[in-house]
Design goal:
Radius of gyration: 27 Å
Strand order of the largest sheet: 1-2-5-4-3
Shape: elongated
Structural class: alpha/beta
Number of strands: 5
Number of helices: 12
Strand content: 5-15%
Length: about 230
């Protein structure tokens, strides 16, 4: 079980949440302690003082720490920026906060890793690289449109998010992000005709209709009749 911290540093809440997730899942699935292992994976490298206040002073290997605190001793802490640049690590270091680290990871995956995985995962990694390659150091914020999220789901052959989860994700995105990938007709169909015309000038409402003289006369007659009814 992995608790991934993309934009935040570790805190007491990080380990409390991870402990609760592990406990809940273990009991719901009726698993023994030996059947599950919890990890906290950090995109950003934790500060030494911050890490050590939770007892993470034992370095198992570069980037991998164990805690001397009895409450956290079963949770392994992984700092992606500190992991060696090897193929087995590249599957996760491609999510590191340092741009050079991500670049090296994707280069390894492209050269050696892609031939080992199925097409949907290749497409997922390619799309992930497109989204995060422009990001600088310590910038792991991603604004995904609803279409981006659905596309990622299709790559895996299933829907990764429920409608409720999509709504929650989209509520945090900018208007431009929410509308990305939609056609004008997709947006227009969400409104009633009177709502679309409400903020338009009369000339804008008639623009592009291509009305012939007979149709214009019908509109004039309708307007004249409407005025008389109001009087």
């Amino acid at each position: 079980m992995i608790e991934f911290k993309a934009t935040e540093s570790i805190s007491r809440d990080t380990f409390v949440q991870t402990t609760w997730y592990e406990y809940s899942y273990k009991h719901s699935q009726k698993l023994a302690n030996k059947d599950i292992q919890a990890f906290v994976m950090c995109a950003k490298q934790p500060q030494k003082a911050n890490r050590e206040q939770y007892g993470y002073t034992i370095q198992v290997q570069p980037g991998v720490y164990k805690s001397t605190n009895i409450a956290y001793k079963d949770i392994t802490l992984i700092s992606l920026n500190e992991l060696p640049n090897t193929l087995n690590n590249a599957w996760v270091t491609c999510l590191a906060s340092k741009k050079l680290k991500r670049k090296k990871a994707f280069s390894l995956l492209k050269e050696k890793g892609f031939k080992r995985i199925q097409k949907p995962f290749k497409e997922f990694l390619a799309e992930l690289w497109r989204l995060i390659s422009p990001k600088g150091d310590d910038d792991m914020t991603l604004e995904l449109s609803r279409e981006d999220i659905k596309a990622i789901g299709k790559m895996w052959g299933t829907s990764l998010f429920t409608s409720e989860e999509l709504d929650e994700l989209m509520s945090k995105a900018s208007l431009e992000t929410r509308l990305r990938g939609l056609k004008p007709t997709d947006v227009r169909n969400c409104f009633k005709p009177e709502e679309l015309l409400m903020d338009m000038k009369p000339e804008d409402r008639l623009m592009g209709l291509g009305l012939n003289p007979e149709q214009l006369k019908e509109i004039e007659a309708y307007i004249k009749q409407a005025k008389q009814q109001k009087i």
